Amino acid sequence: MSTSDPGSKPMGYLPNLPPGRQPLTHPPPGRTANFEHSESNSIRGNVCAAVCMPVIVILATIRIYNKAYVKPGRTLDDYTFMLATVGALIYISLVIALLSKGFFGTHIWDLTVGDLRNSPFQLVLIIEVMWGPFVWLIKLSLFLMYLRLFEVLKWFKRLVWAGILCTGLFYISTSVAKIVLCAPRGGETYVIAFSKAQCGSTKQIGVVAGVFNIISDLYLLLIPMPAVWNLNTSKRNRLGILACFLTGIA
Question: Is the pTM of this model over 0.90?
Answer without folding.
Answer: no
